[in-house]
Here is the input.
Amino acid sequence: DIQMTQSPSSVSASVGDRVTITCRASQGISSWLAWYQQKPGKAPKFLVYDASSLQSGVPSRFSGSGSGTDFTLTISSLQPEDFATYYCQEAHSFPLTFGQGTRLEIK
Amino acid sequence: EVQLVESGGGLVQPGGSLRLSCAASGLTFSSFWMSWVRQAPGKGLEWVANIKEDESEKYYVDSVKGRFTISRDNAKNSLYLQMSSLRAEDTAVYYCATLSQARYFDYWGQGTLVTVSS
Here is the structure.
C-alpha cells in the first residue's frame, strides 16, 4: 500500500498569508494526486486533481504542484473561508489512501 | 446539481449488522463508479470500498474484507453498504462519493454516523 504523509500536521496563519502544505508518497505516483478541503461537520470538498489542476469553481488562490513522490498545495492569500483541514489522496493504485490531514488555523 | 444522501446509520452492538444507503440525484448514476469513505471521530479519511458502474468489479480495504459488501441498484439510483460483524473500530461517519475514472472522489454526500458500542 502507498503511504501518504502530510506536513505540517497543523499550521497557524493570518488572513492574507501565503501557506504551503506538503504531501509525500511512499513510492512514485506520477501526478495521480488530489487535494480536498474539509470544514468541521462537513463533507470533504474536491479541490485539485492530477496534482495541479483546479476543480471547477475553486478559487485561483489555490494551486497544486509536484510529481513522483513530493507534492504541495499552496494558498497564495488566505481568506477567512480557507481555514479548514486539507487532505491529499493518491489515485495511483488500490487501496486509495489519504494523508493524515493538515489543520489550517487562524493565528 | 449532484446530490448524494446517505441514510441508515445508528448505534449497533459489536458483532451486529447495519445497512447503509445512498440516494443519488442530479447525475447519470449508472455511469459512475461509486465509493464509500469513512472518517472515525477526530480522525482522517479512509477509503472503504468501490463498485463499478455495472457491479462487475468491487474493491475493499483489507480491514473490511469479508465483513462489508458494497452493492448498487441503478434502477433506483442507489448505493448500499451492508456491514456485518461490526467492531468498535468501525465507528465513523460513512460518506458516499462518486469516483472519477482517474480515481478521485469528486462528489460527496453529507455522511451518516455509525456507532458500534455496547
User: Anything to note?
Assistant: The mean pLDDT of chain B is 97. The two ends of chain B are 40 Å apart (CA to CA). Chain B is about 0% helix and 55% strand. The longest strand of chain B covers residues 18-25.
